[in-house]
């Protein structure tokens, strides 16, 4: 097994996840099998209990793992199916070590960060790296590991130490370190500054890791003099220093790395030059060109949500819309609508915001209400669903959005005056959406309906089945605590007005075209 480690320096948010995904895709295009691991140094066991404002969306895997959104990038770029073990957190590592200590596995020894935590990290990496994720038998050829956070963060120190030991243990030719860093351009002088990257690499080397490759984020391509300076002070060959400058969309990043021969540098470091072929990104290039040429006939989709302050909260939904726009050769324009701004209370408090929100909704070609938790903005989402139904605007409700559509239908068409979800009104006399019996009301983490579930189409001649290619069933990933109550499904099915047929597809995570 060969390993490629991707680390980040200077500041967070440089795009380590996209870089790791692009490296994986580039190596896969060379005929190699690739797997991925994301290391998150936070103490949470997983991302399941985090607020979207805190960490972006929670990406759900087939096996029910609630993980960092970067694993969604890995799956979309590499067309693989990862497991919960492909996401390592400090919480998971410490929990596993403490469980062993409680069972007496350490035979009375003092349990310490070194060697017990660092050994547990290395063992987890080796175990997760060999899990088949591409539908084929046997382990992959290369595992791309992304270390979350920034070099120097105190919470990532055990992982840095473990990875330093790991690189020494697997030996030269089996380990390649790619350090993603920032080369800023100061507006005052217009010059690319190398000092931040120099300090970042110095810190990395001081912690026991030496980068083989530098991937430098900047607004423009690095000047040759800048590359020479980085090479001199960071002890990295010039041919191993690559620029990840700003591009129209992230699909350009693998092409950017290929054009700079990044694959050759990685393959050389892993002793795979004579085994791998030249990268074939023909299909990827064609798709990227299609996306760049989408200027005419824009389609406006109103995204009505409660976490729109951080667009990463709905990253999978955005990517699915983007893939659909490329497939339909239509330019996608997402109009963000804060659900609470559609409510009457906003009309009283701030009429201008209220009017702007409704104008945005009414100007959309389609309305999408994604998932969410809590009652903030629910009335606004119900109003959006009602507007879509009454004005025959295409509407897609995902997870909570689908439940909202059922509630609105029950209120407006079935005449159930207090129809609601027990999540928002536990005392409602007409509960349309109820807490699922398998859920837990005392523990929040990992207690929802999670992972891939099979849904059968009761009515084969329906729009949903046709959208899935006239399928009789579909496998989609779920993440929800509430579901439409069975008696309400019967009521909805018995009403012909509005053509509402119950079909539950909760949260959706789509692959590339």
Secondary structure elements and pairings:
Blueprint: E1 2-8, H1 16-28, E2 34-40, H2 52-55, E3 59-60, E4 66-67, H3 70-78, E5 87-89, H4 90-103, H5 113-129, E6 142-147, H6 157-170, E7 175-182, E8 185-186, E9 191-192, H7 195-206, E10 213-218, H8 224-234, E11 241-245, H9 252-259, H10 262-269, H11 282-292, E12 299-305, H12 315-328, E13 332-338, H13 344-349, H14 351-362, E14 366-369, H15 378-390, E15 395-397, H16 400-412, E16 420-421, E17 431-435, E18 449-456, H17 463-467, E19 473-480, E20 482-484, H18 486-494
Parallel strand pairs: 1-6, 1-7, 2-5, 2-6, 7-10, 10-11, 12-13, 12-14, 14-15, 16-17
Antiparallel strand pairs: 3-4, 8-9, 17-20, 18-19
Helix pairs in contact: 1-3, 1-9, 4-5, 5-6, 15-16
